Amino acid sequence: MPAARPETAAPASADPGRTASGPAGAVPPHPLPKIDLVLLAVSVSGISLSAPLISATAAPALAIAFWRNVMSVGVLGPYALLRHRAELRGIGRRALLLAAAAGALLAVHFALWMPSLRMTSVASATALVTTTPLWTILLMRLSGVRAPRLVWIGMAVAFAGVLVLTGVDMSLSPRALLGDALALGAGLAAAGYMLLGAEVRKTVSTTAYTLVCYATTAVVLLVICLAAGTPMGGWPAGAWWQIVLLMITAQLLGHSLSNRVVRTLGPSVTSTAILLETPGAALIAALWLGQWPPVAAYPAVVLILLGLVLVARGGRR
Prior knowledge:
α4 packs antiparallel against α8. The protein has 13 helices and no strands. The chain has one domain. The longest helix is centred in the last third of the chain and has 29 residues, at 237-265. By secondary structure, it is mainly alpha-helical. The relative contact order is 0.24.
């Protein structure tokens, strides 16, 4: 689940994925750009690889999270300093503090979700962490933003799926249930990260914001790793290459490409497509790691995905 998320979403009326009806003779909506659909497919594939890759890497989960962000800063830093140096120098205090707060929440997200992949199944952890849109709607409601009825129906359906899934995992082991709780907490932290990031990106470019955010995330994760006594190295070379692959696929290809296509495909198409991370990650984990979810978990995952699709549809309106 997740790092850089799509840029500030366009209003629903500007969503190219929306089929609008108009008066006779009106110009029909433009078809979705094929190249962006291809890029979106690559993005979803990269994100889907994240959970199985983390689960398979022979290194502590917290250390993987730390090095993933350090490597991302190493890749983005030179470009940001070359092309956005003036902007970085001129970031206001409020925007800087909000970007740092978003980075701290992203660190909490990683610190909860990545260990959850070692405690419960990839399918369960991914399904629960992608409840981020539900937490986002709830946080926005607390700030006075009213959501359409379809959004609340979708939330109810998705949480029903969460209850079914946690009930299945409780029957398996308390450890799996704890992993579910960590994944849910990771989804909540990601919602706060997204809301703060959307506020910062009103005045700051994605590149500048991402650099500040990822750097803060790396610092916070370093403190967490040191406090927990997490080893920061000493693994086989294969583990390091898996972390590099994780950074490239999930961070640079996965979330960065979703940032690229959201302006043309629209927020509804992009957010709904990213929901495919759950079945995608489950399929990869099953074929690669042999992690086949119990039969009783499938209806729960379907309910969660259905609820999230309803939330995305309602958010469009």
